[in-house]
Amino acid sequence: MELKTDFPLKAFNTFHVEAAAECYVRFDAENEIAEFLSRNPFGEQRHLVLGGGSNLLFVNDIAGIVLHPLLKGIRVAEADRRHIWIRAMAGENWDDLVAFAVASRCGGIENLSLIPGSVGASAVQNIGAYGVEVKDVIDSVEAISMESREKVIFSPLDCGFGYRSSHFKGLWANRFIITAVVFRLSRQPEFVLDYPGVKAAVEALGAIGLETIRQAIISIRQNKLPDPARVGNAGSFFKNPVIDGNTLNSLRRRFPDLPYFPQGEDQFKLPAGWLIERGGWKGKRAGRAAVHDRQALVLVNLGGATGREILELSEQVKGDVYDRFGIELEREVLVVPQPGCASCRREKYEHACQPSGMGGRVDGPLA
Ligand code: FAD
Ligand code: EPU
To answer: Which ligand neighbours the alpha carbon of 192 most closely?
Structure first.
């Protein structure tokens, strides 16, 4: 364990914005967490649990404590004829786990190749890409309660998984530190190739298999998304909105070329990138922040931007989409600290009060 005060966080967020934590604690072992929490002087609300910082936007310094569980370890916990259970510690890099699974010939997460961040946050976010969401292979989530300091094991049903959401960032925000996740992967995987462009990209590499799928996904992502090691960003800044059939019909009367993806009964997902691009934002700069020129859903730090500049640009984009389409985009990125919230009247670091109207279940091609 290491504790530091006035700790710079620029290297710990993929937007690469400047911010400092009043206090920062790195945990290298599970037992250090409960021990530390029992004497934490900052109280319950003044925590931020940090993973790889790839879905956060710091807009101010952190008056409180940043808890960084850098617990390491990936191992096969159990196996039978059809499945392999892999237990990975929260501080492991997500893509290292995918590489391990593919090398072990276990299927289920190969479509989630190259998503930045940690194993712990994968369950918080219910990460998803190219037709797969991690909730479908999570067997259990191990966490330490901030209140009782006891270890709790959650089944996937407990976790309230939805599109880029879970109770860990909603109902239970700020209450648990995830320490490990167990994944149930398949020895005879059914490959998911329906997302537009994936099958062709895989076939261009050779026979369809775990390794070719992984390589195809990596190459699709590298062509479209900026590499956070070179250009600061946090992936999609907003979620794709989900609307009902009536709203879709009235939008399609005005915008006949609006793409949409059915998500179940009377639910349709719209590509937020299309809505943003349609407003002419793609590639647009605002000082040192910009909308990415190959993916309008991604905001980038061109170098030296502050979190507030990026947030300001995002608000302009959001306002324009609302004016144009009447759709309120919901942030995927967590702004930290959240300004005082009208409903809870507190500034918190993991905030449960984001609007939920655009959320929803997603299994379709945009998942
Ligand atoms: P952080 O950003 O550090 O934290 C995210 C949230 O999880 C915060 O609320 C934090 O408090 C909480 N948290 C983190 N660790 C723990 C823990 N151990 N216990 C409790 N709470 C914790 N996401 C996708 O779903 N699909 C994509 O395709 C995708 N592509 C991306 C591409 C790029 C280039 C980038 C930069 C991001 C992308 N993302 C994508 C977003 C991001 O990678 C994911 O949200 C990722 O899961 C965040 O992981 P992290 O460890 O960086 O979490
Ligand atoms: N589009 C545009 N212009 C753009 C970008 C997208 O018109 O600039 C439209 C196109 O119609 C395109 C469609 O949007 O066909 C979908 O684009 P893309 O395949 O790039 O996916 P996305 O919907 O923009 C979502 C996730 C990504 C995930 C990909 C692949 C969300 C918010 N984003 O993006 O996740 O990698 O699908 O599954 O759901 C993330 O969460 O950070 C993230 C990057």
So the answer is: 2
Asked whether residue 206 falls in the same domain as residue 256, the answer is no
- Catalytically active residues are 164, 236, 332
State the Cα–Cα distance between residues 201 and 222, nearest whole angstrom.
13
> How many residues are present in the chain?
367
AA identity, residue 338: Q
Q: Is the dihedral of CA 54, 55, 59, 62 positive or negative?
A: negative
Residue 291 and residue 212 share a domain? no
State whether 79 and 198 are in the same domain.
Answer: yes
Shortest-distance ligand to the CA of residue 121: 1
211 shares a domain with 279? no
Task: For residues 79 and 200, state if they share a domain.
Answer: yes
Among 195, 236, 260, the mutation site with the greatest number of ligand 2 atoms within 8 A of its Cβ is 236
pLDDT value, residue 356:
29
| Ligand 2 atom nearest residue 259's Cα | 11
Instruction: Find the residues whose C-beta lies inside 6 A of ligand 2.
Output: 129-130, 224, 235-236, 239-240, 259, 271, 273-274, 277, 282, 295-297, 332, 366
Assign residue 263 the CATH number of its domain.
3.90.78.10
- Per residue in 85-132, pLDDT (tens digit) is 999 999 999 999 999 999 999 999 999 999 999 999 999 999 999 999
What is the per-residue DSSP string for 146-168?
A: TTT--EEEE-GGGGT-BTTB-GG
Ligand 2 centroid – CA 273 distance (Å): 6
Predicted local confidence at residue 46, as pLDDT: 76
Quick one: what percent of the chain has pLDDT higher than 90? 88
Is 341 contained in some domain? no
Question: Distance between CA atoms of 9 and 200, rounded to whole angstroms?
Answer: 40
CATH code, 136: 3.30.465.10
pTM, whole model, 2 decimals? 0.94
pLDDT at 355 over 50: no
Binning pLDDT at 50, 70 and 90, where does residue 207 land? very high
Is the same domain home to 87 and 195? yes
